[in-house]
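Quick one, probably user error.
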């Protein structure tokens, strides 16, 4: 993942829940390079939801498959807690249940610029610049 948009995510706390070490490492590096404070990565849903309860993230980057096939319980848990999230997945849109189709879905492999822009949109705070698409 090459990075762009330095400072675009300054002030955002982002939780990464991804079980693939290399994907998670690249995502965390891209988010940090854009100024985000990153929690994780967490390689399973229970660690991610537990960590989110210790300090509420502004956005969660959530893999759909954390080892046992597609699972949407974590997404529903984040939604119930009012925590913004997006999916970063290799699955097609048809796998996402209808109640979660509004959630932004980034298809792997994801470029750093697309991840940064999606996190800026999803976890946007008032006054946060939206210029990661450069």
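Nope, works fine. Designed sequence:
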């Amino acid at each position: 993942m090459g990075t762009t948009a330095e400072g675009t995510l300054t002030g955002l706390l982002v939780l990464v829940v991804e079980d693939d070490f290399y994907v998670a490492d690249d995502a965390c590096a891209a988010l940090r390079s854009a100024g985000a404070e990153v929690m994780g990565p967490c390689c399973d849903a229970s660690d991610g939801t537990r960590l989110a309860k210790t300090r509420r993230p502004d956005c969660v980057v959530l893999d759909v498959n954390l080892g046992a096939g597609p699972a949407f319980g974590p997404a529903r848990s984040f939604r119930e807690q009012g925590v913004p999230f997006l999916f970063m997945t290799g699955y097609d849109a048809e796998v996402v249940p209808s109640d979660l189709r509004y959630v932004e879905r980034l298809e792997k492999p994801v470029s750093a610029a697309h991840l940064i822009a999606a996190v800026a949109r999803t976890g946007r705070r008032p006054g946060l610049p939206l210029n990661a698409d450069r």
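The chain has one domain: 13-122.
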